[in-house]
Amino acid sequence: MTAPLRTGDPVVVNVALGTRAYDIAIGRGLLASLGERIKTLRPGAKAAIVTDETVARHHLAAAEAALAAAAIESSRVIVPEGETSKSFAGFERVCEALIAARIERGDLVIALGGGVIGDLAGFAAAAVRRGLDFVQVPTTLLAQVDSSVGGKTGVNSSHGKNLIGAFHQPVLVVADTALLDTLPARQFRAGYAEVAKFGLLGDAAFFSWLEANWQEVFAGGKSSESLAREHAIAVCCRGKAGIVSRDERETGERALLNLGHTFGHAFEAAAGFSDRLLHGEAVALGMALAFAFSARKGLLSPADAERAVGHLAAVGLPTHIKDIKGPRPDADRLMNLIAQDKKVKRGKLTFILVRGIGQAFIENNVDPAEVRAFLEEQLSG
Ligand code: NAD
Ligand code: GLY
Which of the following is catalytic: 6, 130, 225, 346? Predict the structure, then answer.
């Protein structure tokens, strides 16, 4: 973990991917600079902003004004909010709209929204005219610390989450932390699960810092007095940029970013991708289960497991199956969903397990019978 920030100047993190390298600019009020940043990067390009209805209501006018101030012509594609837009139908709609708006090679797609919009618009950008450049303007905490960086784009299949997609890196990420001021508290908290994930998977010092400073991260600073939120976002982006630059296509280390996701995706699917369990909440529950499962296997001390789960619970995230409202799935359903997950190879399950706080590792040989026994214990608890 690098030292906490001292000034309110934007932080710039580079994702070092050779000819596809790009910057992530992080800071309060950066949306106003979007047009100038794009003009410098792609002089003469026009842009299509893809966003959802809620984000459009809060932030589309400011984004369009920033482009107009730099004399960039723009059009807009607005989809309904939520996971249901991350679908074949949503993909078709965005692709057709980009073509209708005559967005050509050399122009830009701008994803203005949370992870749903980033994944959907990024995938449409990857496909339309065999590849358009795109810019991420993440508007949720989850998107600012995770989904806007790294080039994973795609939509869901009826068989599971993120099963159709492409690696397509953005050419720029502009994370304006002021946009989070309009984010509902529950959405902010869900995004915080991905912040904690960066500490839990590989940065014990950052996790300790979060334990001491999470309230300031949640409060956010409207002045430069508290830069805790910006610091947390910058640490996550640096961590992710490092992993992505070493393992862009997830042949190894990048899988660590899936900590909590195998259990989490199963519960998210079982809850019907609904607001019974938001994606970040599912990741929090999944991480708590990954720590409990690792402790059950004797890989880490119960004290470390309690510490990890205790922090997630302290911020108000779900850490136990009983925290999910509504009917509970049974072990059969969960095992079917886990088996459909893309991390299954030759009947063995791949899980991200932990040896301690900040010590996650990839285990490719997990026995499904052991997972089932663990889930049955958790379901009956
Ligand atoms: P989301 O995009 O659905 O946004 C959550 C809600 O907040 C939506 O209703 C949206 O309209 C609203 N919203 C967004 N910004 C707002 C703002 N500034 N003010 C007010 N409301 C706002 O959800 P999310 O949690 O950002 O993203 C979840 C998605 O991200 C999932 O589909 C997940 O699979 C994906 N994801 C992708 C990656 C990746 O690497 N590509 C990583 C993690 C998660
Ligand atoms: N959020 C997982 C990844 O980007 O690899």
Answer: 130
Closest by CA to 148, choosing from 28, 7, 30, 25, is: 25
For tokens 């496909």, the residue is 127
- The pLDDT tens digits for 47-87 are 999 999 999 999 999 999 999 999 999 999 999 999 999 99
Determine if ligand 2 sits within 6 Å of the CB of residue 194: no
pLDDT the model gives residue 222? 64
**Residue in 86, 279, 311, 343 annotated catalytic:** 279
Question: What are the beta bridge partners of residue 361?
Answer: 353
Homologous superfamily of 259-381: Dehydroquinate synthase-like - alpha domain (1.20.1090.10)
Architecture (CATH level 2) of domain 1-247: 3-Layer(aba) Sandwich (3.40)
CA of 363 from ligand 1 middle (Å) equals 29
How far lies 376's CA from each of 99, 314, 325, 369, 381, in Å? 50, 25, 18, 11, 9
- Which ligand is closest to the CA of 183, given by its number? 1
Residue spans in the chain of domains classed CATH 1.20.1090.10: 259-381
Bridge partner residues of 363 (DSSP): 351
List ligand 1's pocket residues with C-beta within 6 A: 52, 54-55, 58, 81-83, 86, 113-117, 119, 139-140, 142-143, 146-147, 150, 152, 161-162, 179-180, 182-183, 187, 190-191, 279-280
Structure tokens at 192: 């915080």
Output the residue whose Cα is nearest ligand 1's atom 33.
115
Global pTM?
A: 0.96
Split at pLDDT 50, 70, 90, the class of 346 is: confident
Nearest CA to ligand 2 atom 3: 257
Contacts of 43 (CB under 8 A, 6+ apart): none
The predicted-structure confidence for 226-278, as pLDDT tens digits, reads as follows 799 999 999 999 999 999 999 999 999 999 999 999 999 999 989 988 889 99
> Range(s) for CATH 3.40.50.1970 in the chain?
1-247
Mean pLDDT computed over every residue of the chain: 94
Q: Whose CA is nearest to atom 4 of ligand 2?
A: 150
Q: Which of 42, 261, 311, 343 is catalytic?
A: 261
